[in-house]
Design a protein that fits this description.
Largest sheet: 7 strands, parallel
Structural class: alpha/beta
Helix content: 25-40%
Number of strands: 22
Number of helices: 23
Distance between the termini: 35 Å
Low-confidence stretches: 442-467, 552-607, 609-631
CATH architecture of the largest domain: 3-Layer(aba) Sandwich
CATH topology of the largest domain: Rossmann fold
Shape: globular
Number of domains: 3
């Protein structure tokens, strides 16, 4: 197809043999230098369709980015960057950088100063780097808009057009979208030159021999959830898929610490180590393989009975590849996916593509785990009793102990079980279920399909009755508000990405003139609070801190020098307290309306809770709190 020979070698390494339809149609056009509009569903192989031509044509070493790929979410940005890395395995001089919210600025700034050839990023963080003067787009020769319709739905249209305007006029542009709404059509007409339009129908793939289930769980509880699944599922061999190399190592390490036979393979693992690890899995010396998508390509191990998507993949093609590791050659298999509330769109996309429902699986509870442990404990005793010669030797020792210490045999057996069990308790405590209950309840509300989502979202808040206060949340103050044109969706998107939070972690959001109030979990880890405090929205530091409540009505506040002042609005003070807006009235979150309802009198102002939000740092624009969901 005219690709660079070193790129072809990399494709052979990862097991690619024939191009998909979108690749076969797109790659020759891009290699010719023409612009492309690709209309293709998620999961058709779009990433390779634009990555391979870019890698074949790029001239590394300029010190500034030559290629820019925009993706709507940090998850997609990471996946695209990892794909580039695998295809560039034999191009060591090519330097890549993922740029997204949730990662410290310092690491990205350092890489940009050293010089990179290809940047893959989300619009919000790209805009932040442009505002800082850290990202130079003047030498961009190749620009890709991946999932352009999703960027539009998430409120990135203004950011995308700003970025496009900052790039040279003479460049090659590839725009990929599942749909072609009017705004995407306008962007393609304005910024692309005589593009070749390529339309590929999505390929439906089914796996009838594989039982597909999912568990709704927050990101922070995935390791515990995985442990419970391992406890209750009767599996032979298992592959656990993670999105990143680092996560594959971390999960494998945590599983080993909990007594499981687990190992990781990813792009950093040498080929000889990978081969040895796979052989251990085949022979039964290893039970659990934690892998990334690229590392597991072409893997065929007969004893794999279960696939667990620890991180849900960002496209349906990857999902089908993953679960295809089980249920082979007429055998049955099980696929279990962990789904955070923010990932509903992809869950529904998988169901549409495979035309098979994914059945929700309740997180195994304490009672179920304990019953499984007791059953295995019984089986272990039964198996040990069959070893007659060894039993006889120990029986004499126990008889001697019982006679000399006058202790019942049952107590001696229990004491030996304690010795065998060590410090790890045999049974879980019922209290261990409490930490999962809130997330399950929140996710159940989020995944409720009773009625059109848009209609439920657009109902007036007053029709829903008073909002129930949650004891597990506390109020935080951030230093952006109506004056900065901030929207609730921007707040949720920025905090969710920087702090690793899910939708269920947010309570009420109240936006005032110069600050906003957000309810977040009480027990946020210190590192999460530190990252959140350094977060920016629209380029402005939010300086997140715990809110101290409203200032006393009619009284002044005292600054650091001890001077007394009057708060001209008699409502909020410098110390983080809050109350009335500058005109003395309480606002709705959209800044409209001046009346105070009964609820706003009770709550100290109107509020908003997240329904859908951006998966990236925000920089102005963006959709507000009431908006159609992204899926």
């Amino acid at each position: 197809m005219g690709l660079d020979g070193r790129v072809l070698r990399a494709l052979k390494d990862v097991g690619y043999e024939t191009p998909s339809a979108i690749q076969a149609a797109t790659i020759p056009v891009l290699l010719e230098g023409r612009d492309v509009v690709g209309l293709a569903q998620t999961g058709t192989g779009k990433t390779a369709a634009f990555a391979l031509p870019i890698l074949s044509r790029i001239r590394p070493g300029k010190g500034v980015p030559q290629a820019l790929v925009l993706a709507p979410t940090r998850e997609l940005a990471l996946q695209v960057c990892e794909a580039f890395e695998s295809y560039a395995a034999h191009l060591p001089e090519v330097r890549l950088l993922p740029v997204y919210g949730g990662q410290a600025y310092g690491q990205q700034l350092s890489a940009l100063r050293r010089g990179v050839d290809i940047v893959v990023g989300t619009p919000g963080r790209i805009m932040d780097h442009l505002d800082k003067g850290a990202l130079d787009l003047t030498q961009i020769e190749y620009l890709v808009l991946d999932e352009a319709d999703e960027m539009l739905k998430m409120g990135f249209a203004e950011d995308v057009e700003t970025i496009l305007a900052d790039t040279p006029e003479e460049k090659q542009v590839a725009l990929f979208s599942a749909t072609m709404p009017a705004q995407i059509r306008r962007i393609s007409q304005q910024y692309l030159r005589d593009p070749q339009e390529i339309k590929i129908a999505g390929k439906t793939q089914t796996s009838a021999s594989i039982t597909q289930r999912y568990i709704v769980v927050s990101y922070t509880q995935k390791v515990d959830a995985l442990t419970r699944v391992l406890e209750v599922e009767n599996f032979d061999g298992m592959i656990v898929f993670t999105r990143t190399r680092g996560d594959s190592e971390t999960v494998a390490e945590k599983l080993r610490a909990r007594g499981y036979s687990a190992a990781a393979i990813n792009g950093d693992v040498p080929q000889n180590v990978r081969e040895r690890t796979v052989e251990q899995l085949k022979s039964g010396k290893l039970d659990i393989l934690v892998a990334t998508d690229v590392a597991a390509r072409g893997l065929d191990v007969e004893r794999i009975s279960h696939v667990v998507n620890y991180d849900l993949p960002i496209d349906t093609e990857s999902y089908v590849h993953r679960i295809g590791r089980t249920g082979r050659a007429g055998r049955t298999g099980d696929a279990i996916s962990f789904v955070t509330p923010r990932e509903r769109r992809l869950l529904k996309a998988i169901e549409r593509a495979t035309k098979q429902p994914l059945t929700q699986m309740p997180l195994p509870g304490v009672a179920e785990v304990n019953a499984t442990r007791l059953s295995r404990f019984d089986d272990a005793i039964t198996a040990a009793l069959d070893e007659t010669p060894r039993i006889e030797a120990f029986r004499d020792i126990i008889d001697h102990y019982v006679r000399h210490h006058d202790v019942p045999e049952a107590d001696v057996a229990a004491a030996l079980a304690v010795v065998a069990q060590g410090e790890t308790p045999l049974l879980l405590d019922e209290a261990d279920d409490d930490k999962f209950k809130r997330d399950r309840a929140q996710a159940a509300k989020f995944l409720d399909d009773s009625g059109p989502r848009e209609r439920r979202e657009d109902r007036a808040r007053a029709d829903r009755g008073p909002r129930e206060r949650r004891d597990d949340l506390v109020m935080y103050r951030i230093e952006v508000g109506h004056r900065q044109r901030v929207k609730p969706g921007q707040i949720v998107g920025a905090l969710a990405n920087e702090g690793g939070l899910d939708r269920g972690d947010f309570g009420r959001i109240q936006i005032r003139d110069d600050f906003s109030l957000v309810e977040l979990p009480k027990r946020l880890p210190a590192d999460s609070l530190d990252r959140l405090a350094r977060t920016r929205i629209g380029g402005k530091p939010i300086d997140l801190k715990a809110d101290r409540g409203p200032a006393p009505r009619g009284k002044g506040w005292e600054d650091r020098g001890g001077r007394q002042h009057r708060d001209r609005d008699a409502g909020y003070g410098r110390d983080g307290g809050h109350g009335r807006d500058r005109d003395g009235d309480y606002r709705r979150e959209d800044g409209q309306g001046r009346g105070r309802s009964e609820r706003s009198r009770r709550d100290g102002g109107s509020d908003w809770t997240p329904r859908a939000h951006r998966d990236d740092r925000s920089n102005g624009g963006g959709a507000g709190g009431r908006r159609k969901p992204r899926w």
